[in-house]
Amino acid sequence: MISGCNSLKMTYLSEIGRSITESPIKKDEFYTKDDFSALPLPLQKYFRNCGYIGKEKIENIKIDYCHSFIKMAPEKRWLKIDYYQVNFTRNPTRLAYISNKILGIFPFEGRDKYQDGKGNMTIRLLKTFTVADAKGKEMDESALVTLLGDVPFMPGLVTDPRMEWKSIDDYAVEAKISDKGNVVTGIFYFNDNHEYIRFTTEDRYYSQKDGGYQKVKWSVELSDFKEINGIKFPENVKVIWHFDDEDFAYFKAQIKDVQYNINEPSTNPHR
Predict the structure, then answer these.
(1) Is residue 93 very low, low, confident or very high in pLDDT (cuts 50, 70, 90)?
(2) Taking the model in full, what pTM does it have?
(3) First to last CA, the chain
(4) Contacts for 247 with CB less than 8 Å, ≥ 6 apart
(5) How is residue 55 annotated by DSSP?
(6) In which band, very low, low, confident or very high, does the pLDDT at 270 lie, cut at 50, 70 and 90?
(7) Is a pLDDT exceeding 50 seen at residue 225?
(8) 193 and 205 in contact (C-beta within 8 Å)?
(9) For a surface tag, which of 63, 72, 193, 244 has the fewest beta carbons within 10 Å of its beta carbon?
(10) Could you give phi then psi for residue 163, rounded to 5 degrees?
(11) Residue 61: strand pairing partners
């Protein structure tokens, strides 16, 4: 274990602050149907029916979760965590922070990010000892494809030149995102209500016990939609690895609140 000098929470807040500075909010600009007219039809229906038309254009999105759990291995128990996330559109960025106490005593925290084309997952115990610090090309691509799964909640990125879209059928579209030398793809699925219900990709790496990486099919499942600040959003989220012999759901949570265009870093609701 390697000693660390700053809490990951402070690192997370600092990274949010930098992205806010780099992506100032543009006031009084609103989405119209024309903004999405060149997209595949399932995406057009999604943005129209989920309430984005007429809303202020989004530079960033902050998601507050509750009842959040992770599982470190298929045979392990679910571990309750606090989970926070902020995404930015202009310079594609996803920042997430987790914290809790092991056995109710020993604090641990983690920060997962994609920023400036680089992915990184850092985990610290007792806010001092770094027990994981994953980085490199595999992490860059894995972090970008995780961000790709959030793209329907980031309309400005949906229409960005870095994105390429291809229709599959009336309920599915394929997407490719290219950013700073990283290129990943995935498929988005929609239901009869034009709600975004599933994302799958073959471009995410699973960290193996020997320290190596292997691409494993990965998916996000979304359900139970409700209106938050005028936009329909899923309440329940589940994230799954699909191995050849079993599926491993390792993250589940409920979305409590969603805020757009925040202007200060915070892990508190409504800020």
Answers:
(1) very high
(2) 0.93
(3) 35
(4) 240, 241
(5) S
(6) very low
(7) yes
(8) no
(9) 244
(10) -100, 140
(11) 87, 260
- For residue 33, give the DSSP letter: G
Rounded to 10 degrees, what is the CA torsion of 77, 80, 86, 87?
20
Question: Could you give the 3-state DSSP secondary structure of residue 113?
Answer: strand
Q: Cβ(241)–Cβ(206) under 8 Å?
A: yes
What's the mean per-residue pLDDT of the chain?
93
- The token pair at 50 is 């989920």
Tokens of 223: 């359900």
For residue 167, give both structure tokens. 């229709």
Q: Where are the alpha helices (DSSP H) in the chain?
A: 8-22, 41-49, 137-148, 155-158
Compute the distance between CA of residue 102 and CA of residue 106 in angstroms, rounded to an integer.
5
Alpha carbon distance 192, 160 (integer Å): 26
Q: How far apart are CA 214 and CA 206, in angstroms?
A: 5
Q: Hey, which residues does 266 pair with through a beta bridge?
A: none
The burial class, CB within 10 Å (0-12 / 13-18 / 19+), for 208 is exposed
Of the candidates 111, 110, 153, 81, the residue with the CA atom closest to the CA atom of residue 16:
111
Only one residue has tokens 């925040």, namely: 262
C-alpha–C-alpha distance, residues 204 and 119, integer Å = 12
* Residues linked to residue 43 through DSSP beta bridges, in sequence order: none
Is residue 52 within 8 Å of 44, Cβ to Cβ?
no
CA–CA gap between residue 48 and residue 226 (Å, rounded) = 15
CA distance 76 to 206: 17
**Residue 45 corresponds to which tokens in the numbers above?**
């229906």
Count, residues in the chain: 271
Give the residue, 103 or 150, on which the prediction is more confident.
150
Give CATH for domain 2-23+32-260: 2.50.20
